[in-house]
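Q: What would this chain look like folded?
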Amino acid sequence: MQSNRLFVLYLVVSVLALGLTWLHVPAYLGEGLVQGNVQFWQDALLNANPAGLFLAVDILFLALVANIWMVVESRRHGIPFVWAYVFVGIFVAISVAFPLFLAVREKRLTMLGQGNTGAGLTAVDRLLLGVMFVGTVGVAVWVI
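A: My prediction, written as structure tokens:
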């Protein structure tokens, strides 16, 4: 994949994640910012079934590693405002912040002459990544 295609793909994923995760937020908005957050995390970690708990803990660890990587990578390539992405991940959704960071990183790498040309991606890679993309969006829309 060319660098510009990755940039666009990451932005599309970020926008889809924002729209499809935040459809579930109104249930918590009526309680105010602080109480809404408290209720959300109680529902996610205390009132959930084992599958929900698994997913919540899984996403928390994934977010931890993504945040560590974003800070390290931003320092390595001179990407400004890394803590804004971390805070977006905490207060909006890591599924929004991480692809947004990846899009900015891709632009930065292109500017430095290190952009991803997609070398090494096979037709099978592209097919399976496409299936994963469609499957993820499909499940997110289905649970609405």
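Residues 3-142 form one domain.
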